């Protein structure tokens, strides 16, 4: 189902049929990622992108309809890269809480390393809200079904997984800002312990803490 | 301390000295909030703002240096409004967890009601990252000192409050997106219970859930 919809009609950018065409399209995407990340979507021009890619300006229109079309493709690209990175960082068979820990640390490193791509996703909210919304709604769907499996395996308790997923994504997002984008070192082990401690136990006072 | 720095030199927009001047400045700020919120900072022009405020275009420059200056002032304004709203929504003497619950619900209603102002804050990241960073860093400082007081009163356990505050802000932010901006009804009681249940207990399996 998901695959059908991803490869369906929404994918509006023009697919090249040759390897050389695909290479040019990739160069344009990389150049757009850099231009949008550095100066922002609105300040970057199509000629900034073609100059960055080392191609003539007209070449752009063989692959994309307009700037918005490149942006939409970059946001989808970020979604795929993030999923691939997470799948790679989280060894199969890990319990849910260990998987959350690995995923959180990996996400924050990813934000620090791919800051341009990350900013492009965030800016899409101001270019076309639907692109941004689809990005998070799609991610949430996959996340919920992963948590459902963990509930079935009694790795976590049951609850309103939809709400939880937005809590977890918001957590990752803001820690990504703070420890990925602004303090470029990621989370250290103690900080990651604190996050997981929060996710595991919440902030309610425990009996051992009572005076 | 906080007050000194807020009223200090960073406040770069030009302060009118008469009540009439202040009224005009407020009209310009409201018009900018609407213009930026509706079409985005980059697409909105200064003449959109003066037209919305019903003043001549030159009047703008009596109060603001440029579009960026209005944006910075709107972000500070959002910070003040949010603090005032939260102070009003959270009765004094509430325990920390009840205060978190009231604050979370109030924040999501606020995002739904003040969507333009909220979008302006988010877009500031792409206009001047420092404005955006200051907004969250300032908010985090106040939040941390509120949590410190709750730790002293044994209302919550001790921990890495800095990390926790970014978890809590990220949670509020994403729930604000999902349940404030996109599904304009806010959180219902059951959803709010789920959030608080998460914050209170975390997602770890509890002994009562073991098979």
Automatic annotation (TrEMBL), chains A, B:
Domain HTH tetR-type positions: 22-82
Biased composition (Polar residues): 1-16
Residue numbers spanned by region Disordered: 1-22
Documented EC number(s): 1.6.99.3
Portion annotated as DNA-binding: 45-64
GO molecular function, one term: oxidoreductase activity
Keywords (A to Z) from UniProt: DNA-binding, Oxidoreductase
Superkingdom of the organism of origin: Bacteria
Annotated SUPFAM superfamilies: Homeodomain-like, Tetracyclin repressor-like, C-terminal domain
PANTHER family: ACREF/ENVCD OPERON REPRESSOR-RELATED, ACREF_ENVCD OPERON REPRESSOR-RELATED
Protein's name according to its UniProt entry: NADH dehydrogenase protein
Organism (species): Salinisphaera shabanensis E1L3A
Lineage per the UniProt record: Bacteria, Pseudomonadati, Pseudomonadota, Gammaproteobacteria, Salinisphaerales
